[in-house]
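In practice, a research group might receive sequence data for several interacting partners and want a quick structural hypothesis before committing to experiments. The following worked case mirrors that situation: the sequences arrive first, and a predicted assembly follows.
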Amino acid sequence: MLTVNNIEVVYSDVILVLRGISLKVEPGQIVALLGANGAGKSTTLKAISGLLLRENGAVTRGSIEFEGRRLDKLPAEEITRLGIAQVLEGRRLFQHLTAEENLLTGSLVRPNNRSEIKESLERVYAYFPPLVKLRHRTAGYLSGGEQQMVAIGRALMARPRLLLLDEPSLGLAPLLVQTIFAMIRQYNHESGVSMLLVEQNAHVALQTAEYAYVMENGRIVLDGPAEQLAQNADIKEFYLGLTAVGERKSYRDVKHYKRRKRWLG
Amino acid sequence: MNWQLLPQFAITGLLNGGPIALMALGIVLVFKSSEVFNFAHGQMLLIGAMAAWWFASPEGMGLPLWAAIIAALAVSVLLGLAIERLTLRPMTGQPLLSIILMTLALGQFLQGLTIFVFGTTQRNFPVIFSVTNPYRITLPLTYNDNPIVVVLRQNLVWSFVIAMICVIVLVLFFQYTRTGLAMRATAENHETAQSVGIRINHVFGISWAIAGVIAAISGILIATASGLDLSLSIVVLAAFPAVLLGGLESIPGAVLGGLIVGLAQGLVGLPNNSFFMGPAAAQAIRNSAEIVPYILLLIVLVIRPDGLFGQKRIERV
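A structural hypothesis for the assembly, expressed as tokens:
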């Protein structure tokens, strides 16, 4: 459905940030893109969504295809209109509009059919019951979790076929992260929408996704089915923060750095 | 203080504020959507009014007045769209200041174009509202046992009414239509608007087209009152302080700002107004009523730098 084929991204004509990224999202699949700060996850997402152009970045090599159409030269709004909705990093609501108006902006890409839009709105409220009471509140004054719900709801209002999520867990309490990800899984299950999920929180991302890619320094260093990655010793140590419990660290752990270095190479 | 004439001057000033509010609204509209302060608004006013005159007068097309006004509004829509497409879109991505200065140049260009096409002679704008039958309203007030009567020219009253109708229509448009929602969303953040699939270039085009229509309407309203010549384009100088008073981005602010400016100009015109200063100083101010809104603006901005209704930046901690 979505194929990213060996792309290279350059900012301001000189700064090479992505070096040959390839990934695939199949219909109905949730795919996670993991990595540390500055690994290039968000840039990959922006390359797909077309927002790169606004930041003086460009895809200089490779191609991005969605259902057989090239995306890498299209402006952001046209890509959204093809059926790719996105939840931007840090929520980014229209702060002075109400929660409900924010949701409605998501439906602007659809034909003006009042009853259908109303139905979608009810569906979003069914997924996020707390929003019902907040619908007429100014979005900028909602709490972080509430804003994230509005941001995801707004993307759902477009009835996308592919949903791009950029760090939905950012700045949220752990309990809220669980709630939001449970909802994401549920929506994927019920509507069959494909999702590409960018996350730093590897734990929750690997629980949610079927397949995952790990990025470091603008390259993909590892990929595989999510359960497999969750068992991988390196992933456990570098991303999930797990070591063999109870054992004392010894100088042999210096190897750790060698192993990590091999990744960064 | 001349109490007997105070209501007359206050009400006249307030009503004069209607078209000023409408001009301010046109500027705010463009500013909200594209962050460009449109210095060419006055020339859009002039061209709209000139077009209406040309379509209506026997020297031009000789159409009936209503048809001429509709044709002029159509011309203004095209003008707005053309300005957006030909001058602003190529400037996308340039520093904001360059774009704003470009509108200043555009204003001069349009002024020159008007001279080229229509010449510099003063035109008699067709009479829309009766000049000979002013409204006389007796207020339920007395001064030294004389009832206070306010005399208002018809065009003054109707200009105000039409301006306010335009304002209300626009507010409803923004609040309740999909295009209005797209425009409000774009006004908040271009990138986010694009990410939800709003074609922001279309939104800019629509804003400029609406600004063109508003400019033409205010141009026609002012021309019916004070005749039509090139000086129409500098009438907009009264709207700039109104825009800033209201806080640049606020529609209610622009309207209120326009009314305040009108009121201030009206009150300054009051004869024997000498409660602050000697009669000579009062006379001097009266002769330069144009600067009064700016003095007012200075005072307001010192106290409230965001204007009266400026949008508060929402900051969550």
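Before designing any experiment, note the following. Chain B has a mean pLDDT of 88. DSSP finds twelve helices and two strands in chain B.
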